[in-house]
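The authors assume throughout that readers already know how a fold can be written as discrete tokens. For illustration, here is how one protein appears when written out as sequence plus structure tokens.
>
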Amino acid sequence: MRKLSIIILVAIIGTIWSCSSSKKSFESGNYYGSVMQSVSKLRKSPNNKKTREVLSQAYPMAVDFYRDQVNRMKNSQDRFKNGKIVDAYKMLNNMHDEIRRSPAALEVIPYPEDFYSQLKYHTKEAAAERYTAGEEALAMGSRPYAIEAYHHFVNADLYEPGYLDVKNKIDEARYFATLKVLVEQVPVPSMQAGLSAQFFQDQIEQFLFNYQENEFIRFYSARDENLKDPDQILVFQFDDFVVGQVNNQERIIEASQDSVVIARIPKSSVENQTQQEQKVTVCHAPPGNPANTQTLEVGMSALQAHIDHGDKIGSCDGATPSPSNSNVSVPKEEYINVYSTVKATFRENTRQVISRGLLSMRIMDAKSNTVVLHDKFPGEFAWINQWGSFNGDERALTQEQLNIANQRPMQPPPPQTLFIEFCKPIYGQLTSKVMSYYHNL
């Protein structure tokens, strides 16, 4: 029951809003809008008295409004007055058609007027006035006037499709309105063996020959036999380029890290000793004879020197003390950390393969052979490979250095790939410049 009440309430609100909407349009002087809204409402609520009243008042006032417009335009000096008269008659016929399709609206307006005969006559007149304007503009002999003529002929064809020879006139005006640009790509001299600029040149031509930002700009290839007399010549040429310039760098870094735990030793072994007397067991590898290891006890002050040349904490045989009688209960041993500075020699290798080029773009006036625009677009691509190695304790290295140490030397991409890569930023600059230059030309 509650759901039904909500539906009824929504319907009532819709009815009130619709009636109010058509009335507001009427009161604001929008008689056409008031008529159309009233007719639409009467299709849903045929017996709505307020809507019927609004329609009965709005329709005659809308007819008078557009008739007055027609009479004023007929007496005006407006060159394209027939087009505006056509617009007025279309509005009158729209109201006629909508009322005829609504039985309830027909009860209010039994005899809506149609103006189709008048519309037909003035539509032809509107096509004629646009056709005449197009011919006059085309006769001026310049590209801006040809663009104007094109739009006049298109409008004439919209008013009356196929009016006289308007199709041919549209083609003629479009031809003279279009700036015809011949594209020339100068071959790249001294190309390396197996290296070709054809891919990049094909990309440029694909962009230009599919250019649609300005309908009155067309780019032509030198192979296009349809181009007889270009207006401009667009020339692309590499002024300079280099592919695969190798730069090798090596950097040696002495790395160190303080306060690193290098061992844990029994607390009892140093508990009753002074700092000078404290001893630590190390496995000593004599310089020049590292295989002849010896177990030594060294003072804490000498420990760092032994670690620096490769000695390890603990005995050489790896033996640890154990109780002689397994039944004897041994107290749990406490251990202390031994801190020291760890060191490593890190060798970082970087191979950088540079490829770069400079593309020149010139726009020339084909008639005077003068340069209209000259611009240059640089491009660069750097392929980088890093790898490394180290001697010493890896804990002395940063995470980045460890990552580099895990890399291996790699071969750079083939020259053709490097050429394509440095051309990518050039292509972006070039297309942006072309679009900005020709957008409003």
User: Anything to note?
Assistant: Strands lie at 179-185, 217-221, 232-266, 279-284, 294-299, 312-313, 335-365, 371-392. The chain has three domains: 2-114, 198-217+232-248+348-438, 255-318+334-343.
